[in-house]
């Protein structure tokens, strides 16, 4: 039994069947990639997992608990962190402040009125944030405005912010979309390092086959809102159905 | 000091010194000089400076930190004033219960309005707050007359009960007169005047009470800005999506911020009533909400000291600048030949005196267009300019380095 | 029954004004994405076009009337408008009498000019700034415009009567079979309503049937794509701003006989107009018109004596109450589209 179980999930938008009977089982401490051509329903599926959309049918269980009907922040507090396609960070704040927020959220929960204490006086939080910045190899950017950084650095910061919460499941939505080759490789190395160093499950939605095959241990192929096959990367590469639906098209 | 870092602490100290010395600093011109009309150091105006300072500080906690633009803050100001008046009518003429009650009532009302308005963001939030404030204004002027005194407003009267014992400010009348708002017997209007050479300095009790309240309000605002709560509010402004996906519930953060901001407005309203015990519904009108927006933007939204500066500037304009008339101008430009003097007077006249709103509007537009950080940003830019110049100069002086 | 008809009729003229201002606001918002707090000021400027024109028309010179004497026995001096000299006395008097409708011709070029000037000079620089900045800068502009008018025209209301032919009221009740005198409705309000309907119709027809309008509608739906097609959408948007200003201005011109203009009338209408826009649904033109009339009529029903006795004060707050209820139950307003202003 996996940490994330998706059973018979379906979602319609008006006349369009975006998802139909999706079943997915992500095992703990693995990297699971979900691939598929444009419009296959990858993003819709992801949005159903994090509470942005509510599926019409089926169930989504995380660690034995249903996530359906919960809001994004509640689902996050259960231990699911999400990295967006375009990095979502707090642009107006400093890098260190960016890193402190998820650590506050981890310690204090969804809301805590702490209006008088000095933020920088929270030694534990500052230390944890600084340690995470060192881990992310961006300690030198501590005081920088987050919005002023390069896209690669923003991505690195966003991943760091998610990791700072010590989530059990990290969802990545096309983490290398729109990146230069060098940035993409950096991101792959970073994710590999995370996989080795931490007990974490990663589910990744990706377009770039290079990224997928260098990271994933299991791959699910989605096409037209339904899973086509689920297998190991080696088997997927040679699968005729996949070639037809996806790789053939891309080549 | 007081849990502030060095920079904030020195800012607080500077503001405290300014507040204490304001009666002297704001009266730079001798009593009989022709410039005496620009003296702002009289109690009535100084009280307004600090009271509107509190109002603007509170507004800035909401708008500056979270970016939610409320167009209905006057409702809380007015509610605070009414609440304060009722305390002074029913309980005691002592200002302390009035101030406490006005803050509490404004907090309760802002909780209710915020609870509903914060379901939406952006311009919808602005319109919702505006709608609530206009409703409050319309109701205060009509149906709620038993509570608000309707169009004539609310005043202290001889037949008010004031049930507390006399030493706490109770009693309907003092020597047959309506008692004046006081603090354990010290009347808010009481002042002592010190004439020094040609100057006259007036130290007024009411002003210092308001000044102390403003310093407390300012101090609390600094603490909020630097707190984890303040960080969360800035994060709400920056990226709500990331907030939600970081396990944070933005609603209670916003609501708490809105209520705090409303309580600041209530405190300001209560102090207004305590300084001048009469309240009319116009205090709740949306133009009053617009005024606090102007103050905050003018001074520098999101900065600590900006709103206070903005409040001071607008109140100075309203009370001093507006009194310049044509005759004053003619005296000023009298040094030029007649035709030139006439020309200058004609050019300048529309912008001063009764036309001060025009200057204010232009100034405000200029600030929004060129200086989004307000006067504070202007000051910073000037300082940077000077720093660069001096560093250039020192670089030239030491070419070896 | 007659009371209900009366209230609907009473709501129509205010509703017309709301609808016209909200229509212009929505045009600007929909095409340019700008929240224009100076729109009420444009309405006010329109009203003052009327005042200006009637002042120009009555510009006079002194003439000695030899046939009459003043109380000292000297020949009486009378002011004769120049216009009498040019067109003769009876035509001249008729022109002055019809100053308000004539102001339409006068106001159109002026309002379009002001609108274009505003867009090129100020609004253009705010397309990419946050909505809060747009609100603030146009709020500042509204103060400036209003103060300029106050400087030149003073703070008092300036009456601008309707032409003699439209003074008086129609016994509408008798016309449709109620008791005579039950429903009395001033002629000018009928004119105003018809005028508003015409103007709304003209704007919709313009957007619907001209190429220009088609491009603008496409631009409202998706600005970037139209820009990619190589259509100079910016210039068209400038023109749209001019048109929106003209619509607001004309609403103001014709409103003068109903309510004598003063310098702060714009602000008074603006607050309600924004409520109207939001209720109608941000960015929806039919929504703006519909909401304008609905709220106008609602307001007039709420001022009925029976209603006030039941719910005191409801006439003062009904519009805001309606706005709050609609915003909370139908977040996008009556006819709003998805994804507008939902940042």
UniProtKB/TrEMBL annotation, chain A:
Keyword Cytoplasm belongs to the record: no
Domain of life, source organism: Bacteria
Pfam families: ABC_tran (PF00005), BCA_ABC_TP_C (PF12399)
GO MF term list: ATP binding; ATP hydrolysis activity
All residue ranges annotated as the ABC transporter domain in the record: 4-249
GO cellular component terms, semicolon-separated: plasma membrane
PROSITE patterns, per the entry: ABC_TRANSPORTER_2 (PS50893)
Signal peptide residue numbers: none
Cross-referenced InterPro entries: AAA+_ATPase, ABC_AA/LPS_Transport, ABC_transporter-like_ATP-bd, BCA_ABC_TP_C, P-loop_NTPase
Known EC number: 3.6.3.-
Record keywords: ATP-binding, Hydrolase, Nucleotide-binding, Transport
Protein name (Swiss-Prot/TrEMBL): Methionine import ATP-binding protein MetN
Organism: Cognatishimia activa
Gene that encodes it: metN
UniProtKB/TrEMBL annotation, chain B:
MF GO annotations: branched-chain amino acid transmembrane transporter activity
Membrane topology: Multi-pass membrane protein
InterPro entries: ABC_transp_permease, LivM-like
Location(s), subcellular: Cell membrane
Domain of life: Bacteria
Keywords, in A-Z order: Cell membrane, Membrane, Transmembrane, Transmembrane helix
Stored CDD domains: TM_PBP1_LivM_like (cd06581)
A Pfam family this chain is assigned to: BPD_transp_2
Predominant location: membrane
A GO term from the CC aspect: plasma membrane
Transmembrane regions listed in the UniProt entry: 12-29, 49-71, 91-116, 123-144, 205-225, 252-272, 292-317, 329-352, 358-376
Name this polypeptide is given: Leucine/isoleucine/valine transporter permease subunit
Source organism (scientific name): Cognatishimia activa
UniProtKB/TrEMBL annotation, chain C:
Pfam families: BPD_transp_2
Entry-linked CDD domains: TM_PBP1_LivH_like (cd06582)
Entry GO MF terms: transmembrane transporter activity
GTP-binding as UniProt keyword: no
Location(s), subcellular: Cell membrane
Any one GO cellular component localisation term in the record: plasma membrane
Transmembrane segments: 15-35, 42-61, 98-123, 190-216, 237-258, 270-298, 310-329
Keywords (A to Z) from UniProt: Amino-acid transport, Cell membrane, Membrane, Transmembrane, Transmembrane helix, Transport
Membrane topology label: Multi-pass membrane protein
Entry's Gene Ontology BP terms: amino acid transport
Xref: InterPro entries: ABC_transp_permease, BCAA_transport_permease
PANTHER family linked: ABC TRANSPORTER ATP-BINDING PROTEIN, BRANCHED-CHAIN AMINO ACID TRANSPORT SYSTEM PERMEASE PROTEIN LIVH
Family: Belongs to the binding-protein-dependent transport system permease family. LivHM subfamily.
Protein name: LIV-I protein H
Source organism per UniProt: Cognatishimia activa
């Amino acid at each position: 039994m996996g940490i994330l179980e998706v059973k018979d999930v379906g979602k319609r938008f008006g006349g369009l069947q975006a998802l139909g009977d999706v079943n997915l089982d992500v095992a703990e401490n693995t990297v699971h990639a979900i691939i598929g051509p444009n419009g296959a329903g990858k993003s819709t599926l992801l949005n159903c997992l994090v509470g942005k959309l509510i599926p019409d049918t089926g169930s989504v269980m995380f660690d034995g608990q249903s996530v359906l009907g919960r809001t994004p922040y509640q689902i996050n507090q259960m231990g699911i962190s999400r990295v967006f396609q375009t990095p979502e960070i707090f642009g107006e704040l400093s890098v260190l402040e960016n890193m402190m927020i998820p650590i506050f959220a981890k310690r204090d929960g969804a809301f805590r009125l702490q209006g008088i204490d000095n933020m920088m006086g929270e030694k534990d939080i500052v230390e944890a944030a600084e340690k995470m910045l060192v881990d992310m190899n961006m300690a030198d950017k501590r005081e920088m405005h987050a919005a002023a950084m390069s896209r690669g650095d923003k991505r690195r910061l966003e991943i760091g912010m998610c990791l700072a919460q010590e989530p059990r499941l990290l969802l990545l939505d096309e983490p290398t979309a729109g990146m230069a080759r060098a940035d993409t490789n950096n991101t792959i190395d970073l994710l590999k390092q995370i996989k080795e160093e931490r007990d974490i499950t990663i589910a990744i939605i990706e377009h770039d086959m290079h990224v997928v095959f260098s990271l994933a241990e299991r791959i699910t192929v989605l096409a037209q809102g339904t899973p086509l096959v689920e297998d190991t990367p080696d088997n997927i590469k040679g699968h005729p159905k996949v070639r037809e639906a996806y790789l053939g098209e891309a080549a | 000091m007081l849990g502030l870092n060095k920079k904030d602490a020195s800012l607080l100290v500077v503001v405290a010194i300014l507040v204490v010395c304001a009666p002297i600093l704001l009266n730079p011109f001798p009593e009989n000089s022709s410039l005496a009309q620009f003296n702002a150091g009289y109690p009535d105006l100084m009280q307004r400076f600090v009271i509107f300072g509190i109002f603007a500080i509170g507004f800035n906690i909401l708008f500056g930190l979270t970016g939610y633009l409320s167009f209905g803050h006057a409702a809380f100001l007015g509610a605070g004033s009414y609440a304060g008046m009722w305390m002074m009518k029913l309980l005691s003429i002592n200002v302390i219960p009035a101030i406490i009650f006005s803050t509490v009532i404004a907090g309760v009302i802002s909780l209710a309005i915020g609870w509903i308005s914060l379901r939406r963001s952006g311009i919808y939030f602005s319109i919702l707050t505006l709608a609530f404030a206009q409703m409050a204004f319309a109701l205060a002027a009509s149906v709620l007359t038993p509570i608000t005194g309707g169009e004539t407003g609310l005043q202290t009267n001889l037949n008010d009960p004031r049930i507390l014992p006399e030493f706490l400010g109770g009693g309907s009348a003092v020597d047959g007169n309506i008692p004046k708002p006081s603090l354990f017997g010290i009347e808010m209007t009481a002042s002592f005047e010190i004439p020094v050479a040609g100057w006259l300095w007036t130290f007024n009790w009411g002003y210092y009470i308001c000044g102390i309240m403003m310093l407390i309000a300012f101090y609390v605002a600094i603490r909020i800005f630097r707190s984890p709560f303040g960080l969360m509010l800035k994060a709400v402004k920056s990226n709500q999506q990331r907030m939600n996906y970081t396990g944070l519930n933005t609603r209670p953060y916003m609501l708490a911020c809105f209520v705090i901001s409303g309580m600041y407005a209530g405190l300001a309203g209560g102090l207004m009533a305590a300084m001048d015990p009469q309240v009319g519904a116009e205090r709740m009108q949306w133009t009053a909400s617009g005024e606090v927006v102007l103050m905050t933007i003018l001074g520098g939204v999101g900065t600590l000291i900006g709103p206070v500066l903005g409040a001071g500037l607008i109140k100075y304009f309203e009370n001093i600048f507006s009194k310049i008339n044509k005759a004053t101008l003619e005296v000023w430009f009298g040094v030029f030949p007649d035709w030139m003097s006439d020309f200058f007077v004609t050019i300048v006249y529309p912008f001063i005196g009764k036309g001060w709103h025009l200057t204010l509007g232009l100034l405000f537009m200029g600030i929004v267009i060129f200086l989004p950080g307000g006067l504070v940003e202007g000051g910073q830019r000037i300082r940077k300019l000077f720093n660069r110049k001096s560093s250039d100069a020192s670089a030239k002086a030491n070419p070896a380095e | 029954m007659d009371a209900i008809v009366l209230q609907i009729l009473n709501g129509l003229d205010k509703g017309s004004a709301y609808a016209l201002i909200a229509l212009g606001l929505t045009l600007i918002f929909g095409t340019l994405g700008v929240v224009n707090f100076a729109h009420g000021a444009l309405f006010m400027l329109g009203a003052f076009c009327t005042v200006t024109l009637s002042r120009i028309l009555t510009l006079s010179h002194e003439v000695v009337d030899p046939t009459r004497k003043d109380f000292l026995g000297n020949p009486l001096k009378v002011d004769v408008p120049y216009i009498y000299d040019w067109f003769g006395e009876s035509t001249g008097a008729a022109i002055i009498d019809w100053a308000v409708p004539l102001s339409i011709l006068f106001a159109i070029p002026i309002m379009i000019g002001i609108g274009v000037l505003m867009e090129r000079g100020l609004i253009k620089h705010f397309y990419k700034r946050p909505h809060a900045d747009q609100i603030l800068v146009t709020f500042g502009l509204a103060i400036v415009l209003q103060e300029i008018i106050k400087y030149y025209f003073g703070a008092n209301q300036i009456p601008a009567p309707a032409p003699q032919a439209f003074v008086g009221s129609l016994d509408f009740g008798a016309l449709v079979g109620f008791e005579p005198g039950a429903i009395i409705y001033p002629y000018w309000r009928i004119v105003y309503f018809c005028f508003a309907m015409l103007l709304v119709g003209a704007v919709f027809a313009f957007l619907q049937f001209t190429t220009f309008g088609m491009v603008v509608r496409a631009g409202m739906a998706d600005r970037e794509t139209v820009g990619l097609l190589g259509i100079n959408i910016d210039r068209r948007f400038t023109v749209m701003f001019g048109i929106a200003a003209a619509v607001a201005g004309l609403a103001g011109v014709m409103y003068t006989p109903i309510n004598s203009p003063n310098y702060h009338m714009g602000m008074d209408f603006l607050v309600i107009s924004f409520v109207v826009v939001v209720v109608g649904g941000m960015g929806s033109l039919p929504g703006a018109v519909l909401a304008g009339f609905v709220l106008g009529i609602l307001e007039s029903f709420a001022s009925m004596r029976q209603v006030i006795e039941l719910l005191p004060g409801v006439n003062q707050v009904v519009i805001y109450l309606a706005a709050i209820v609609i915003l909370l139950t139908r977040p996008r307003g009556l006819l709003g589209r998805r994804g507008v202003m939902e940042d």
